[in-house]
Amino acid sequence: DIQLTQSPSFLSASVGDRVTITCRASQGISSYLAWYQQKPGKAPKLLIYAASTLQSGVPSRFSGSGSGTEFTLTISSLQPEDFATYYCQQLNSYPPGFGPGTKVDIK
Amino acid sequence: EVQLLESGGGLVQPGGSLRLSCAASGFTFSSYAMSWVRQAPGKGLEWVSAISGSGGSTYYADSVKGRFTISRDNSKNTLYLQMNSLRAEDTAVYYCAKNLITMVRGVLWSIGIDYWGQGTLVTVSS
User: Fold this and answer.
1) pLDDT of B38-62, one tens digit each?
2) Residues of chain B contacting residue A46, judged by C-beta atoms under 8 Å apart
3) Which residues of B58-91 are buried (b: 16+ CB within 10 A; e: fewer)?
């Protein structure tokens, strides 16, 4: 099975900051990577698919990049509603596992 | 508007069984692969199972293989998860999810989960 790691696990940031989260896969997954945002008590929300394609309705301050084994999610200017936990998911092969998550908290 | 409404969660004793249902609307149900994803209290997301649009292909996480069965009734726009031999570690919120799909080299491929239900809590405890 393909394993995903995320760094950092926890991130403290201020409104307006540029934030970058990294997801690494244990083997190459081409561009079959998705990013999700989850707020407490809510279902996850798809932000990015195919590593860099913005899901419809997601603000353009979110962007994704990478291919192979290393991927990044960038929030160009953190907004109050962006404080949440972020997960990556690989869809190159079954099982399509998730990374452990990165919690973005208010500094 | 896509809607996914789970039901069937609750408290069950270890070794017991439960069947989750997910009523789907707002899209052509039979055209999309569907998944179940769970989240234990205070933990991250865990993919559990998936099924193709026709129901002909099913996939399971090792942690549930042989105990859980995913199925669908396309005439009723409903997804199911039959859970047997439940363990304490199966305690979680279970989400029904619609896969985002695309055609890759002539094959339908899931590239994300674009819609999620609100989740149903399954608690396994004596």
Assistant:
1) 999 999 999 999 999 999 999 999 9
2) 100, 112-114
3) ebbbeebeeebbbebeeeebbbbbebeebeeebb
